[in-house]
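Please complete every field before forwarding. Incomplete forms are returned to the sender.

SECTION A: IDENTIFIERS
Entry label: holo-358
Bound molecule: pyridoxal-5'-phosphate
Molecule representation: SMILES string

SECTION B: INPUTS
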Amino acid sequence: MASVYFTPGPAQLYPTVAGHLQNALDQQVFSQSHRSQAFKDLYKRADAGLRALFQLPADYSIYFTGSATEIWERSLQSLTAQNTYHLVNGSFSKKYLDHAKWLDRNAQVLQVPFGQGFSLEDVQVPDGTELLAITQNETSSGVCMPVEDIHALRQRYPEPLISVDIVSGAPYAALDFSQIDMAFFSVQKGFGLPAGLGVWLVNERSRQKAASLEGKQYTGGHHSLASLQDQYQQFQTPSTPNVLDIYLLAHVVEDMLAKGVDVIRQETEAKAQQLYAFLEESSLFAPFVQEKRHQSPTVVVADVLDRPAAEIISILKKQGFVVGSGYGAFKDKQIRIANFPAILGRQVDDLVQALKRL
Ligand SMILES: *Cc1c(COP(=O)(O)O)cnc(C)c1O
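SECTION C: PREDICTED COMPLEX
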């Protein structure tokens, strides 16, 4: 029997992926030119689906890149000359900061310990900040930032562009995109697709900022915001894109819309509640994130008490449950359980039963 992947990326594939993949093969989609009308129609279809899923304001553009990692770099190159401010509470938010330093930006940071979230009163964004970088769901530690807190930062700081990494929070996180300026994700987490595609959602204000920097500095080459936008106007891409993933994304997003994003959110919360309730009562596990409002519904991280995490992971694996190890220094002490939309309620039931038997 096939295993269920509760890993936080790559993750369990969305249940409809296999059927869509077979259809694409039957239609020879992956041999079609990326300059053809068929590709433009596919891009347009993905664009329409994502707009509906995220309730995007009309001024947003949607670009495709190689990964979310690429968007860390491209967003900093295209949207900043000097001053950035980063909320850092784990490995992924830290990498966004690292990219700013590599690019010689004056990168300011509010850093809190692994496993903690941010109190809004501690966030002090200096005047002149061009980009405020937020990681909505820190995949390494299982800490989320409630979307209300992100919206509150917009009210407090109207000036800087607000960039939100939603890689492991989307499509669950109900962000109001009129309260931010750009967001991005890669598809192998919450969308349950094969890795290798980044999706960058960008508003008009960001495009204006990019235009003001064009010609004054390096703004990101073939994937500069300007060149992506130029191609996007014809539903084209600067280079040959990952058509396989774009095809699967367009179709899976339509499946998610047919199901209803509200239903997906309710199911995510119900499954998360079940997992956290188990961790609370268990004598072998404990939730790593203490503060309830910062406990991620989409990536649940558990401390393993008195036994090596590797032993737990190996026993579960033999039973067909693949859970993630702890991140970095927490590898031996924690497990991470992804609760993405691809994971069904009964699969969480089965996992909890297996955890109880340990
Ligand atoms: C996985 C992840 C990334 C990086 O995604 P890639 O597809 O590997 O570039 C960035 N941010 C977060 C929060 C992630 O979980």
